[in-house]
Amino acid sequence: MLKYFLLAARSGCFYLGLLLIVIASGVTSCFIWGLPLIHRQRIAVASNYLVLNWLRLTCGVKVNLSGLQNLPTGACVILSNHQSAWESFYIQWLVRPASFVLKRELLWLPFFGWSISAMEPIAIKRSKPAAAMRQVLKQGRDRLGRGIKVVIYPEGTRNPAGKLGSFKTGGAALAKLSGVAIVPLAHNAGEHWPADTWLKSPGTINVHIGPALDSSIYTTRELADKAHAWVASSLNTTSCQ
Fold it and tell me: C-alpha distances in angstroms, 166 versus 65, 130, 155, 157, 208?
């Protein structure tokens, strides 16, 4: 019982700080639209840096990163597993310039949505998958052509720690169409920032960046499967559908 109350107190403190950071970031984002994307993202992700450090101070959640040398300096498609909100904060801070594929409804959130909009995401309507796919290919090619990395969660939804959903082929198709590499990314954020509870557990989130996959020598399905296999091996997870 004491452990639960301690976790609750620390998590509550974290969310109070998160709220203040998100409000400040949302207001700031309204004044930076005239800047080039690289500068907008540099300013916007300052709030992500604060969130990550506030999480470490209040909840004892640390990060261990490996494989950074595998990340190309130019455009690529990053395929990451999806377990919580944590990875969006972290990857946005780690990778710049980058454009995230996300659900359009997030842009409607006050303050938080304003900050996301300044990052120039690819905001799709998930209820119309065919139109969403065309949008990802069109806008994704534009971003990649400008040297901007595109980050996609190919599972399509969050899965709990220890589970990994099958990878959809949209990210692989975009990489192949644009002639850029795919970079797989694996993490266990769900163990410490679960999607099904507001409580945060202390510990270390391990982030692994895998070797780039040459999109010119594999089919779209092979690319998605190879990225999935690498992430699953890194996490030693159980596959789920």
Answer: 24, 19, 6, 10, 19
Rounded to the nearest 5°, which phi and psi values hold at 196? Answer: -100, 10
- Report the C-alpha dihedral over residues 227, 72, 126, 18, rounded to 10 degrees: 110
In the structure encoding, which two tokens stand for residue 67, read together? 């494989």
Residue 17's domain is classified under what CATH number?
A: 3.40.1130
Residues ≥6 apart with Cβ < 8 Å to 174? 77, 136, 137, 140, 141, 144, 150, 152
First to last CA, the chain: 35
Distances (CA, A) of 15 to 11, 51, 198: 6, 10, 9
Strands (E), the chain: 61-66, 77-80, 98-103, 122-124, 149-152, 163-165, 182-187, 203-209, 238-240
Residue given tokens 């595998």 in the structure block: 70
Q: List the structure tokens of 127.
A: 């209820």
Write down the pTM of the prediction. Answer: 0.93
Q: Is residue 140 over pLDDT 50?
A: yes
**Which domain does 137 fall in, by range?**
2-240
- The whole-number average pLDDT for the span 213-234 is 96
Provide the number of structural domains found in the chain.
Answer: 1
Give the mean model confidence (pLDDT) for residues 91-115: 94
CA pair distance 86, 61, nearest whole angstrom: 11
Which residue in the block uniquely carries the two structure tokens 């999806």?
82
CB under 8 Å to 79, separation ≥6 — which residues?
A: 152, 153, 154, 167, 171, 172, 182, 183, 184, 185, 224, 227, 231
Per DSSP bridges, beta strands 182-187 and 203-209 are antiparallel
